[in-house]
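Example 275, ligand magnesium ion.
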Amino acid sequence: MTFDPNSEDSPLSAAISQRDVHVLDMVRAALRKKDVLLAYQPVVQGADTKRIAFYEGLIRVLDETGRIIPAKEFIETIEAREEGRLIDCLAVELGVESLVKEPRLRLSINMSPRSIGHPQWETALERGLLSDPTIGERLIIEITESSALLMPDLVSDFMMRMQRRGVSFALDDFGAGYTAFRHFKDFYFDLVKIDTSFARNIDVDSDNQVLMQALVSIAQQFDMFTVAEGIERPQEAEYLREIGIDCLQGYLFGVPSVSKPWEKDASAERRALLR
Ligand code: C2E
Ligand code: MG
Ligand code: MG
């Protein structure tokens, strides 16, 4: 008997779908209980890493034991399903809630282009934009390069509509998949976030040095602001600062946190004033 790992009823595909079923159940239960939250990670300025340019809001769900589950554990499974749309709605609602509460905040949220045109998601965004006239200019929407290229016309039309309302757009995970440069002429992304893999050991990895410089020069040619993702070591940050990256993001500057980091900063400022 031969074993075809791609066959529908192979042990491998059974194991994968078993995992998907579990993930779907967990997300559905979290949605029912509204156990969904954003974790916030700082994106700092390259030239002065003590200054925060904006925060990225990353979606989290709580599992049945109350553990915080990061997006990478479930987003792929739900992305093409209705649950993916509901998660994107909550990301907008939670993001807008934070923007309304903290007028100094600039925040990015992630979305799937599949949410464009989804009535509930469009309503959530519209309601958010109307809730305060400054929301649009403080909101950044991140779309991964691979998903933007799946539906270029839909995405570029949506971006034009939203950019008129002051919203900025970031091209996420730039360089991670196959990169089709011709689309840069059609899309007007304000920022590019260069995929984590290119920053890894960049101070010593000569391949990454060449690739990063090429990606940065393309971004600059198209007047896009650059963010390097996944910075974990000071040497990586120093190298990137020297080559003129605008912003840096990664565990070195702060892990994603479900307690709002700017609230901690504000209470530290208040404590310092009282001393
Ligand atoms: P992303 O937008 O590229 O987010 C960066 C991911 O890298 C996050 O994982 C973050 O926790 C992780 N990260 C941050 N700094 C470091 C670092 O220094 N080293 C390493 N190794 N990792 C780092 P997370 O939160 O699990 O999110 C995974 C992906 O899920 C995101 O990638 C984004 O594409 C997607 N996602 C997150 N929230 C949403 C959402 O609300 N809607 C949709 N559609 N997708 C989302
Ligand atoms: Mg992102
Ligand atoms: Mg990314």
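Summary: Residues 41, 58-59, 70-72, 75, 87-88, 91, 109-112, 142, 144, 172-173, 196, 230-232, 250-251, 256 surround C2E (ligand 1) (CB under 6 Å).
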